[in-house]
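Here is this case:
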Amino acid sequence: MSTTQILFWFLSLLAITGAIGMVASKNPIYAVLWLIVVFFSISGHYVLMNAQFLAIVNIIVYAGAIMVLFTFVIMLMNLNEHPEIPRNIYMKAIGIIAGMCLLIVLVAALSKSSTMNVEMKYGTNVGLIKYLGHTLFNDYVVPFEISSVLFLSAMIGAVIIGKKEKEEAI
């Protein structure tokens, strides 16, 4: 077994352990910390696939900014009060239906998957920033610009909504 395979299996085990810890954790702050472990292990997988840019973006954006946002929201909501959660038959039925839908999607995806042995070659330039930028600004320039306009309009909308609420409060 090569070093790359050992590292792959270690990162996979770490990701699965972190995901189980996140779901099983009763304290929401601990769940966020477990999710950070999952994000770091996924970034390790990106490095193994020679996608260094995705690994760094995953650490900066998700493990950094998004997790800080989640932590602030959890702290502002004060979830330690333990409000009563309604446990009726409808909620259980919705949970069972959602779980079965997820199981169907997973079975369908795994049945269509290939069992061929895929080997990564380290001499390729697939995940490097130079080629990612070249592909993004040559082949996908129109979707990139459309998404930038969408993000700009979302920011303007958030400012307008925030300003209207502030004016109404006065």
The chain is about 80% helix and 0% strand. The chain has a mean pLDDT of 81. The radius of gyration is 21 Å.
